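Regression test case RT-17, inverse folding.

Input:
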């Protein structure tokens, strides 16, 4: 049973249909090559995710972003795919090898990313973080709220000059703290690129790589990821001559939330090192 069928029983078979078409040797553009607007439009409409797909807005490493519509209202459609050139892949079986001996089913990998982004957006939205509200997800396609006016998408923070940078900096860290403390995620790629500026406030986007901070978390990794995000945000504010100590912001985050069983992780990792 695919993830689609497990988590979304009413919308079965989307990924199974793709796997089947692959086994039969037919081409499957959504997953494997540069996406064609027509194919994405057909899938999005067939899957009931959009009533129209207007145009492509951007093409990132693993996904392309489209402006779509749901009954006349603009929405964002994100289509995950893997570049053909960067992966050794057996088309006949739909598996790729990534360095080691393990092979992965390419379709479940991209579906997993779309599913992760949908779930993480949902948790963050419910916790009160300013993120685009997720709408739907089938196979490798994900829809979410359009951040922008009419058909004009919001600018990335790095492209704009804000009037009250101190307030904006605080809004970003307040939102990020809510994401970390209440939804328990480290973003992992936060910067002026993945923050949009809309209606006079920042909006956090692009969360599929976020790291869940629960009982089994690697707190060293959490520290490193948080610190990198904090530094990247502070970098944008240097143009306004605002400088803050990243380490003390990190301490606030860790103080606000560290999983109960990992509260003494610093001492424990030191003791562990001494035993070696
Ligand atoms: N909900 C949204 N509303 C408006 N614009 C959006 C939305 N989501 C994404 N965008 C636009 O599309 C761009 C790319 O989106 P996102 O960062 O999610 O995709 P990505 O493929 O992961 O990109 P990259 O690999 O470049 O980080 C954003 O920088 C933003 O300009
Ligand atoms: Mg991005």
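Golden output:
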């Amino acid at each position: 049973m695919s993830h689609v069928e497990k988590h979304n029983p009413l919308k079965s078979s989307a990924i199974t249909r793709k796997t089947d078409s692959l086994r039969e040797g037919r081409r499957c553009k959504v997953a494997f090559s540069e996406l064609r607007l027509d194919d994405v439009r057909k899938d999005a409409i067939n899957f009931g995710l959009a009533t129209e797909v207007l145009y492509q807005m951007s093409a990132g490493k693993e996904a392309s972003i489209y402006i779509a519509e749901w009954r006349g209202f603009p929405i964002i459609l994100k289509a995950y795919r893997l570049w053909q050139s960067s992966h050794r892949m057996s088309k006949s079986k739909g598996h790729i090898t990534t360095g080691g001996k393990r092979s992965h089913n390419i379709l479940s990998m991209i579906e997993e990313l779309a599913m992760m982004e949908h779930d993480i957006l949902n948790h963050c939205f419910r916790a009160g973080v300013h993120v685009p509200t997720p709408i739907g997800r089938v196979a490798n396609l994900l829809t979410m709220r359009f951040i922008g006016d009419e058909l004009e998408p919001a600018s990335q923070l790095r492209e704009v000059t804000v009037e009250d940078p101190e307030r904006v900096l605080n809004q970003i860290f307040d939102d990020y703290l809510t994401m970390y403390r209440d939804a328990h995620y480290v973003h992992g790629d936060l910067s002026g690129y993945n923050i949009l500026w809309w209606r006079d406030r920042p909006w956090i986007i692009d969360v599929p790589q976020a790291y869940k901070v629960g009982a089994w978390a690697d707190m060293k990794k959490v520290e490193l990821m948080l610190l990198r995000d904090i530094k990247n945000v502070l970098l944008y504010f240097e143009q306004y001559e605002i400088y803050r100590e990243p380490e003390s912001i990190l301490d606030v985050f860790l103080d606000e939330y560290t999983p109960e069983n990992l509260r003494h992780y610093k001492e424990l990792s030191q003791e562990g090192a001494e035993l070696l």
